[in-house]
Amino acid sequence: MKKIVLSIEGMTCSACSNGLEKYLNKQKGIKSAFVNLVMANATIEYDEKILNIDNLNEFVRKAGFKSLGEFKEIKEESKNKKEKVKFIVFTILAVILMYIAMGHMINLPTLSIIDVNRNPIGYTICLFIFAIIFMVYGFDILKNGYKNLIHRTANMDTLVGIGVISSFLYSLYNMILLFKGNNEAIHHLYFESVVMVIYFIKLGRYIDGISKDKTKEAIQKLVKITPEKATIKIDGIEKTVTIDEVSKGDIVISKPGERISVDGEIIEGRTHLDESFITGESKPQAKKIGDKVIAGSINYDGYIEYKAEKIGKESAISEIVKLVVEASNTKAPIAKIADKVSGYFVPVVIAISILTFLIYLILGYGFENALITFVTILVVACPCSLGLATPLAIVVSEGKCANNGILIKKSEILENAKKIDTIVFDKTGTLTYGTLKIAKINNYSNISDEKLLQLVGSIESKSTHPIGKAFTDYLKENKQEVLEVKEFSNVSGFGIVGKIDKEEFIIGNSKMLENYKIKNIYEKDEKELSKKGNSIVYVVQNEEIIALIGVNDIVRKNSKKVIEELNNKNIDTIMLTGDNKETAQKIAEDIGITKVIANVLPNEKTNIIKKLKQENKYVMMCGDGINDSPALATADIGVSIKSGTDIAMDSSDVILTKNDLNSIINLIDISKRTIRIIKQNLFWAFFYNVLMIPIAIGILKPIGISISPMVASLAMVFSSITVILNTLRLKKKYIKPLTYKNSMI
User: Fold this and answer.
1) What is the structure's pLDDT at 38?
2) For residue 498, what pLDDT is reported?
C-alpha cells in the first residue's frame, strides 16, 4: 500500500469534501481516503499494483473536482473579504424579497408595480428574478446535490437541490398559467421558498466557514520561524546567502540576537540558545563545541560557528510542520448529529416523495395533483431549520465564551468539550507563567533585599542573558531606578562583573566562584534551591558571597484551584513537558497533578496524545509553545493561552484570551448547555416536518385535512423560528467566572 496527499481544487463546503471522500472510498484499489476541506487536499492510501496517480486524478475529476497533483506545501493566500460582502448583499436581498412576498399579508405598503393585488404580473416577475439570482448564488448547492445523487451518496444538498428545483419548476409552471390569464395561479407561486431555503443553507455554511483558513495560517507562521538568510564562512570570508543556498557541510555563523539558520553542530565558540519553541524549557541552554543546534533557536550572547547537518525537509521545524499537517489530516472520531440524522432522512424523504407521486398518478389524481403533492412533501421536509440548528447555537455560545475569555475556533468544539475526560497540560507557560521570576532570596548581608535587587538588576541590565531579565523585570515592576554601572564585563558561561559607586560586584553561577577562587560556604543552600528547580545566582562583594538568589519559572496563581476543580469533575489531569523530571515533579506536587511525563520532545508529545486516544480517552491538550503545536493539533481539543506563540494559538481549537485556566472549566460547562440546546433544536427542526409529511402525502384528506406547498413552507419557516427562539435561551444563562474560597486569584 502507498499513501499520497493530493491537492484538490473546487471544494467550497463540507458537502463537497464529504461527497468526494465517500466517492473515493468506493473505488477499487483505494484502502482509505480522507478529504480535508481546510487544507484542500485528500490523503489517499491505495494499492500501487492496481492504481497510479493518474487513476487517482481521474477519480477526483469524475467526482466533479480537479486534482492539482501531489500536495507539497502551503501557499500563502491573502484574506479575501469577497464572500463576506457577497453574504451581506444576499442577506439584504433576502429581507427585501420576504417584504415583497409577505408584506401584503400584514398590510405593509408596497410599490404598485410589484403589488400582488394591483399588479400580479409585476409581482410574479419580481419574485422570479429574485429566485434566479439566488439559484445562481446557491449553484454550488444544486451542483453538489446532483453530483452526490448520481454517485449514490445523497446528502442534505441533494434534498435541498431537489426541493429547490421542484419548487422553482412548479412556480415557473404557474407563472406561465398566470401569464395566460389564470389569476388563481398567483396562489401557487413558491419562488420565495426557493430564495429562503438557499439563503438559510448559505447562512449555516457562512457561519461554519469563518475560521476555515486557520490551519493554513498556522503552518505558514511555523515555516517562517527559520530565517530567510544565513551567513556562511567560505575560505575565512563571511558571505550572506538565502536559506535555500545552504548545503550540508557548510560552516554557518551565528551572532548574538540572531536565529539559527539550519540544524547543525557547533565547531567553534559557545553561547546560550533559547530552544523553548522545541523543548518547552524556558531556561536558555548553554552550548559549546560538539553540541547540536536547532534551526529557529535564538542565539542570546555568544558567537558560534556550526556545521550544517540537516536542511530543508530534514530539519526539526520541517518535522513539526509535517506532524501538524498529518494531525490536521486525521479525521476526528465523531460524527455530527445532523449528518447522522440526514444520512437516513434524506433518502427516505426522496423515496417517499417519488413513491407518492407515482401512486397519485396510478390512482388517477392527475399530473397536477401528483406534482403538487410531490413538491409539498419536499418543501415540508426541506430542512432549512436544520441548517440553523447547530451553527446558530454555536454562534450564540461562542459569544458567551468570548465574554468569559474563551475564543472558539472550530464549531464542533462546543459539541465535544463536554466529553473531555483527560486534560494534558504543558508546564512552561501554561501551568507556569513561562518567564523567569525571582523565586527566593537568601540575603547574607546587611543590605536590604530591595537595595540588593536594585544593585543586581542594574548590573544585569547590561547583560543579554535571559536570567538577567528576571532582575530587570523586577526593577520595572517595582519602579526602581537603574543605577549607573561602570567597568561592566561578561564572563561567558560564568556570569557578569560590574562596579556601582566604585564597589565591584560579581554575579554568576557556582563556576564563577571557582573562576575567582572564592570559597563557597553556602553549598547546602544552593542544593535546597536547586531541588526546587531554581537557577542559581550568586552575588559577591569584596570576595565574599553576600546573597544567593533562586530564579525560576513560577506557577500561575490559580493552577492549583483549577486542577482541584477538574479532579472534582472526575477529569484526569496529566503534566506533559520537555523540562527535566525533578522540576516537573515538584511543580506537579504543588498543584495536585499526580501523573507527570517529563523530558519529552514534540513528536513524543504527539505520540503520547495518540496513545491516550487509543485508550478511548477523550483528550484535551493545553499548551502555549511551538513545541506543543503537533500535540495541540492531534488532541481531540487543543487549547492555548493568549500569551503563547502565534503558531500554538493557530494550531489550537480554543484560545484562552484572559490567560485564565478557569476558562477550561467554563468551556466544559458551556459545552454541556450548548449540546443540550442543539439536541432540542434538531428535534424542533424535524418535528413539524416529520409531523406534516403524512399530512402532505394526503393521509388525512378523508377527514378534510390537507396542506398546500404554501402551508408546507410556512411550517418550514415556523420550525426555523422555533429553533431561533430556543437558541436565544442560551443568552439568558450567564456563565460566571469560577471563584474559590481562600483563592489567590
Assistant:
1) 60
2) 93
Cα gap 348→345, rounded to integer Å: 5
Closest by alpha carbon to 653, among 304, 409, 317, 305?
409
Can you read off the three cell numbers belonging to residue 694? 403524512
Phi, psi of 542 (to 5 degrees): 55, 45
Percent of the chain as helix, strand, coil, to the nearest 5: 50, 20, 30
Q: Which amino acid is at 62?
A: K
Query: Is the confidence at residue 326, as pLDDT, over 70?
Result: no
Sign of dihedral through CA atoms 338, 618, 568, 409? negative
**Which of 319 and 375 is assigned the larger pLDDT?**
375
Distances (CA, A) of 376 to 356, 373, 442, 555, 706: 11, 5, 84, 63, 10
Between the alpha carbon of residue 118 and those of residues 111, 126, 187, 743, the distances in Å are 10, 14, 15, 72
Tell me: pLDDT of 356 over 90. Answer: yes
Which stretch, 70-74, 93-97, 646-650, 652-656, has highest mean pLDDT?
93-97
Q: What's this model's pTM, rounded to 2 decimal places?
A: 0.54
| Average pLDDT of every residue of the chain | 80
Cβ contact 288:270 at 8 Å? yes
Q: Please pick, among 250, 274, 426, 653, the residue that the annotation labels catalytic.
A: 426
Report the pLDDT averaged over residues 392-411.
71
- Burial of residue 187 (number of CB atoms within 10 Å: 0-12, 13-18, 19+): exposed
Residue 486: name the closest of 462, 467, 516 by CA.
462
* The three cell numbers locating residue 610: 495518540
Whether 650 is a known active-site residue: answer no
Q: Which of 4, 91, 102, 112 is nearest to 48 (CA)?
A: 4
Helix (H, G, I), strand (E, B) or coil at 739: coil
Dihedral (Cα; 325, 328, 330, 336), 10-degree rounding: -170
